[in-house]
Amino acid sequence: xxxxxxxxxxxxxxxxxxxxxxxxxxxxxxxxxxxxxxxxxxxxxxxxxxxxxxxxxxxxxxxxxxxxxxxxxxxxxxxxxxxxxxxxxxxxxxxxxxxxxxxxxxxxxxxxxxxxxxxxxxxxxxxxxxxxxxxxxxxxxxxxxxxxxxxxxxxxxxxxxxxxxxxxxx
Length: 170
Known about the structure:
Layout: H1 3-6, H2 12-15, H3 19-22, H4 28-58, H5 62-73, E1 78-79, H6 80-87, H7 91-103, E2 107-112, E3 115-123, H8 125-146, H9 151-169
Antiparallel strand pairs: 1-3, 2-3
């Protein structure tokens, strides 16, 4: 996290002095605004925090390790189109990432015998080793961040995020 993120003057309530001119204090719309704002900031900070740590230790970009997890978690082999949909990324971006992963022997791709227009993808042993390296950084960092949360709080927050995600899928 950057130094600026931790400074008191960067806190929303310190600089957003006219906020309640737009959102009535204690209102539902204020609660929705503050929740969505905090969600965005938390996602950005988490992404920065974890990206920096993983890249420094392993050299892997987020696109690489998230794609490797997507392949490893799937019933393999998986088609590139299915992987794109499951990960919520655009197909052309995924193909670029897959090209990079294949050039590093972290995945293997071949034509789908059931549909010659598509390709199948699976993770290699090298890819599994790369994921193990990522997990050595990711898991302790995640635990460090969430250590002060009760398991029930994590479950409730997860359920809330899943509901939110499903509403946005429509």
